[in-house]
C-alpha cells in the first residue's frame, strides 16, 4: 500500500477514486449479487471504510480492487444475517449467472469492467423514460440523489421516489443485468445512446434556469460516452455520439459572453473553440460514417464537423449541411430535424426559401412549446423586413424560452423590430 496522501488530501483522493471507480464497482456487485439496492448499500459502506482506513494506511495501489473486496465481504456478511433476503437474491442470481462475467479491463485486473451491463439495465425500455437518465447518473456516474435531482430540476424527495420505484420495477419485472445478445443489440443500443444524449443536451442547452449551459452535466454525459466507447469500440453509432458531443461541446466557451449572455453561432469568437476537442471529434467521424449505412448520430457528428471546420458562418459548407439534414430526415425524421433543415436551407438559398419550409411545420404538435421554432421564424421574418410579423414571433418565443440568457437575447431582438414607443422613444 502506497502512502500517497493524508488528512484532507486523502479525503480528496477517496472522492476522486469513488468518482472513477463507482460505476465499475457497482456493476461488478450487481452482477455478483443480482440486487441494485444491496450493491449500492455495500458500495457506500466500502467507501465509508476507505475514509476510515486510508488516512491511516494510505490509498492502496489498486483502490478499485480494495473497494470491491471490502464491498463483497460486507455483502456476504449481510446475507448471512438475513436468510430471507439471501433466498430472494438466490432467485435473482439465477438470471445473473446466465451471463458470463466480462473479461478484466483497465488497470485493475482484479476489478472486471461490467459497466456495459449496467448501461443497458438503466436504459431498459421497461423503465419509464423519465427515470432512465436519472438511474444512469445515479449508478454509472456516481451522483448522489440530490445531485441527480438538481440535474433534472426536481425536488430531491421526488427524485428519491422515482429511483426507488425504478429499482422496484427492475426487481419485480426481473429485468436482467446483462448485455443484450448480438441479435438484440441493434434494437437496444439506441435507447442507451438516447439517454446519454438527453443528459448532454440538457447540459449544453439548459431547458430552464439562470444559465444557458450546465457544463458539469454536459461533461458528465461526455465522460459516460467515453466509457461506452471503450466498452463498445466496434459500434459506429457510439463513435458518432461521442464525436457529436465533442464537436458541439468544443464551442462551450464561445457560446456565452462575459455576462453569461447568449452568443449566436454567427457572432462567436471561434478562437475560443477547443481545438483539441475538435480534433478528437473529427477523428471519430470517418469511422462513424463508413462500413455500412450511416446512423443518426454519425450524420449529426458530420454536420457538427462542418460547422467546426468553417472559418465563419458565411463560408460554412451549407449545401453539404443541407444534404446531410436530408439524410437525417430519412434516418430519424422529426419536426426538430425538419426545423434544423429549414434553417440550413435559409443559409443556402435565402430566408424566403427557409421560411417556406418553416411555415409547412406550423401544425406540428412537437414544435408547440418549442421556442426555437418561433425564434427561427422571427429571425427569417426580420431578415425579410417583415418586422410586425417578426415581433409577434419573437414575443411567442419569449413566452416559451426557459433560460434567462435566451429571454434576454429575445428581448433585444424584439426591441430591434418593434416600432418605437411615442411616449418613451424606446421599444416596448
From TrEMBL:
RNA polymerase sigma-70 region domain boundaries: 20-83
Short name of one Pfam family: DUF6596
Gene3D superfamilies assigned: 1.10.1740.10, Winged helix-like DNA-binding domain superfamily/Winged helix DNA-binding domain
Domain of life: Bacteria
Domain DUF6596, chain residue ranges per copy: 188-285
RNA polymerase sigma factor 70 region 4 type domain sequence ranges: 122-170
Keywords for this protein: Sigma factor, Transcription, Transcription regulation
Protein family according to the UniProt entry: Belongs to the sigma-70 factor family. ECF subfamily.
Designated name of the protein: RNA polymerase sigma factor
Species this protein is from: Streptosporangium longisporum
Lineage: Bacteria, Bacillati, Actinomycetota, Actinomycetes, Streptosporangiales
Amino acid at each position: 500500500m502506497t502512502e500517497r496522501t493524508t488528512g484532507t488530501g486523502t479525503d480528496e483522493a477517496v472522492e476522486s477514486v469513488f468518482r472513477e471507480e463507482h460505476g465499475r464497482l457497482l456493476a461488478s456487485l450487481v452482477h455478483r449479487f443480482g440486487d441494485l439496492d444491496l450493491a449500492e448499500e455495500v458500495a457506500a459502506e466500502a467507501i465509508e471504510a476507505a475514509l476510515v482506513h486510508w488516512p491511516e494506511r494510505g490509498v492502496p495501489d489498486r483502490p478499485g480492487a480494495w473497494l470491491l473486496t471490502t464491498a463483497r465481504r460486507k455483502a456476504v456478511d449481510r446475507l448471512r444475517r438475513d436468510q430471507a433476503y439471501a433466498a430472494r437474491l438466490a432467485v435473482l442470481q439465477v438470471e445473473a449467472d446466465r451471463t458470463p462475467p466480462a473479461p478484466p479491463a483497465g488497470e485493475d485486473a482484479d476489478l472486471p469492467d461490467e459497466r456495459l451491463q449496467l448501461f443497458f439495465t438503466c436504459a431498459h425500455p421497461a423503465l419509464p423514460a423519465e427515470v432512465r437518465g436519472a438511474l444512469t447518473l445515479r449508478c454509472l456516474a456516481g451522483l448522489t440523489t440530490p445531485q441527480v435531482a438538481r440535474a433534472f430540476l426536481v425536488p430531491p424527495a421526488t427524485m428519491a421516489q422515482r429511483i426507488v420505484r425504478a429499482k422496484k420495477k427492475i426487481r419485480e419485472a426481473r429485468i436482467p443485468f446483462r448485455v443484450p445478445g448480438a441479435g438484440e443489440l441493434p434494437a437496444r443500443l439506441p435507447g442507451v445512446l438516447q439517454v446519454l444524449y438527453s443528459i448532454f443536451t440538457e447540459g449544453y442547452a439548459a431547458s430552464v434556469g439562470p444559465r444557458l449551459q450546465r457544463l458539469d452535466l454536459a461533461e458528465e454525459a461526455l465522460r459516460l460516452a467515453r466509457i461506452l466507447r471503450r466498452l463498445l469500440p466496434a459500434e459506429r453509432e457510439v463513435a458518432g455520439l461521442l464525436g457529436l458531443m465533442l464537436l458541439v461541446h468544443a464551442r462551450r466557451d464561445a457560446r456565452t459572453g462575459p455576462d453569461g449572455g447568449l452568443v449566436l453561432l454567427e457572432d462567436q469568437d471561434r478562437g475560443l473553440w477547443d481545438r483539441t476537442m475538435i480534433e478528437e471529434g473529427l477523428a471519430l467521424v470517418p469511422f462513424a460514417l463508413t462500413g455500412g449505412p450511416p446512423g443518426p448520430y454519425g450524420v449529426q457528428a458530420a454536420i457538427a464537423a462542418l460547422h467546426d471546420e468553417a472559418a465563419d458562418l458565411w463560408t460554412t459548407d451549407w449545401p453539404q449541411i443541407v444534404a446531410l439534414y436530408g439524410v437525417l430526415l430519412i434516418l430519424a425524421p422529426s419536426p426538430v430535424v425538419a426545423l434544423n433543415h429549414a434553417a440550413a436551407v435559409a443559409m443556402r438559398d435565402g430566408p424566403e426559401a427557409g421560411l417556406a419550409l418553416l411555415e409547412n411545420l406550423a401544425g406540428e404538435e412537437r414544435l408547440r412549446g418549442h421556442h426555437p421554432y418561433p425564434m427561427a421564424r422571427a429571425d427569417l421574418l426580420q431578415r425579410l423586413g417583415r418586422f410586425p410579423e417578426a415581433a409577434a414571433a419573437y414575443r411567442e418565443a419569449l413566452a416559451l424560452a426557459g433560460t434567462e440568457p435566451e429571454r434576454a437575447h429575445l428581448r433585444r431582438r424584439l426591441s430591434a423590430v418593434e416600432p418605437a414607443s411615442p411616449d418613451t422613444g424606446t421599444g416596448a
